[in-house]
Amino acid sequence: MLAEERVPEATLSVSLIEQDSVWVGFIHQHTLYVRASSWSDVDVRESIMAVMELAESLECQNVALCVPKTANQIQPFVHDLLLVGFELIHPQAMQLKSSVQCNYICVGMEL
């Protein structure tokens, strides 16, 4: 992608009682890609709904969540995402750098 075509990063802050988690994302080809600084300290259902609502308001057609492979409780978290309709995204399908492919599991959903 050419530099002038890049969309600046946006942040979405999801808060729980005394905890904050900053989710960093960008839009590429009608897809909102999101990476959270932490998945273990947020209300997953509320957070996913907020991301999906944001994607719809930005007129995105898809949402992709990138989960660090080193995250705590990654297996049950990804399993829960698959149960609610997310699908694993093959790393090469997103045309991301190999460092991203090696360090993250990405799941996506069509809106």
TrEMBL record:
Q: How does it assemble?
A: Interacts with ODC and thereby sterically blocks ODC homodimerization.
Any one Pfam family match given in the protein's UniProt record, by short name: ODC_AZ
Give an example GO molecular function. ornithine decarboxylase inhibitor activity
The entry's protein name is Ornithine decarboxylase antizyme
The family database entries (SUPFAM superfamilies) matched by this protein are listed as: Acyl-CoA N-acyltransferases (Nat)
By its UniProt entry, which InterPro entries does this protein fall under?
Acyl_CoA_acyltransferase (IPR016181), ODC_AZ (IPR002993), ODC_AZ_sf (IPR038581)
**What function does this protein fulfil?**
Ornithine decarboxylase (ODC) antizyme protein that negatively regulates ODC activity and intracellular polyamine biosynthesis in response to increased intracellular polyamine levels. Binds to ODC monomers, inhibiting the assembly of the functional ODC homodimer, and targets the monomers for ubiquitin-independent proteolytic destruction by the 26S proteasome.
TM annotation in the entry:
none
Q: Which organism is it from?
A: Umbelopsis ramanniana AG
Its Gene Ontology cellular component terms are: cytoplasm; nucleus
- Taxonomic lineage from the root: Eukaryota, Fungi, Fungi incertae sedis, Mucoromycota, Mucoromycotina
Provide the family line: Belongs to the ODC antizyme family.
Q: Which GO biological process annotations does it have?
A: positive regulation of protein catabolic process; viral translational frameshifting
